[in-house]
Every structure is written in C-alpha cells, then in structure tokens.
Specification:
The structure is a single chain. With 201 residues, the chain is an alpha/beta fold. It has one domain (5-200): Vaccinia Virus protein VP39 (Rossmann fold, 3-Layer(aba) Sandwich), CATH 3.40.50.150. Helices cover 32% and strands 23% of the residues. It has 6 helices and 7 strands, in the order αααβαβαββαβββ. A 7-stranded mixed beta sheet has the order 3-2-1-4-5-7-6, with helices on both faces. α6 (145-153) links the parallel β4 and β5. The radius of gyration is 16 Å and the shape is globular.
Length: 201
C-alpha cells in the first residue's frame, strides 16, 4: 500500500494525524520489516503487508482510547497495538507488558529509536502488573476473550475498558463477569480479521 494510505485510512475513523505521526508510523513499520521476522514478532509471509496487517489494523485501537491516562498493552510482542496507540495518543502513557526478555529488549530499543517518551516497557508477566491503575488495556493475539478479560479486569480502574481484537470467527458474548458493558466496533481492516470489542469494567 502507498505511504499516504495511512492518512487516508485514519480520516474516516475521525482520527486527526499529523505528518510527524505518519512519519513515526512509517519508521515503526520499517523496523518491523527489518527486524520483526528474525525476532519472531511477525510472520515472514507478512513482510510484504506489514502496513495492512499490523499498522492499519492497530490504528483502530486509538479510536476508543482516551487522550490521556494510563494504558497497558498486554503481551505486547512487537508493540502491537501499544506502540501505534502511543504514537497517535501522545498524552496517554502506554506500558508495553512483555515477559520475554528478547522482545522486551527490542521494545525498549524501539521506544528509544522512535523517541516516544510516553511509551514504557514492563518486562514481566501480566499477572505481575500493579492492579487497579489503568484507564485502558489492549489485547491482540494474546488469549481468547474470556482469558484476556480475566487478565485485564483487575488492572482496570472502575470505568476502564479492555480493547480486544476479536478474530474473524470470534463470538463476542453479551456479558462477561465484572463488566458493565460490551460494545462492538464492527469495522475491520483485514478480510480475515474481526471487530474490536470494548469491554468496560
């Protein structure tokens, strides 16, 4: 896809993106292309479509994200979607939770390369993160929805939300224990992808 497609993609979502943010997203995309496959962060088959499969897909998570506060990207891997949201929501502190040391080291290097002061790395298990602090959590390719909610639930403040990337065949339940609401955002990027489920504590 063309570089300008980032702006074309964000406009219908109601996201205002600056040229500097587009440049950062492009730089992040290039780092994933250059290093992601070797580190096991993305599939070799995705190298030709990193933008569509990862960058644009993760941009969606910025829409329901608050402009400020604290976010956790649970099982961040290569920083998807936490780094993307951190670029688009500079007033939001985004903590990338990644227990695997090599990936956490890559994320720390990446945050330095992109000069993202609002993006921090927690090299630990999700279960070891301090509870009750977050305004929002993200879960992408971490666990089925009930498991992801079980991990996020205690990390969220009352009124905080889990932004869950549902798969193509995922069935989003009408309710889960401890949630006050579940809202589905149906728009998606990938033909094989699914909606975002916003689960509020």
């Amino acid at each position: 896809m063309k570089q300008t497609d980032i702006t074309e993609f964000t406009r219908p979502l109601g996201l205002s993106v600056t040229p500097d943010q587009v440049s950062l997203l492009e730089s992040y995309e290039q780092h994933l292309v250059e290093r992601g496959s070797a580190l096991g962060l993305i599939s070799r088959h995705d190298l030709e479509r990193v933008r569509e499969r990862h960058i644009l897909d993760c941009i969606r998570a910025a829409v329901p994200s608050p402009p400020a506060g604290l976010a956790y990207d649970l099982g961040s891997g290569g920083g998807l979607p936490g780094v993307v949201v951190g670029i688009l929501r500079p007033g939001l502190t985004v903590r990338l939770v990644e227990r695997r040391a090599l990936r956490a080291t890559f994320l720390e290097w990446l945050a330095g390369q992109l000069r993202l002061p609002n993006v921090e790395v927690l090299a630990c298990r999700v279960e070891d993160v301090a509870e009750g602090l977050a305004d929002v959590c993200y879960s992408r390719a971490l666990a089925p929805l009930p498991g992801a909610w079980a991990l996020a639930r205690n990390l969220l403040k009352p009124g905080g939300s889990l932004v869950y990337f549902a798969g193509e065949r995922a069935v989003v339940p009408e309710s889960v224990p401890g949630a006050t609401s579940i809202h589905v955002l149906p728009w998606k990027v990938l033909e094989s992808g699914g909606p975002l489920a916003i689960i509020t504590r």
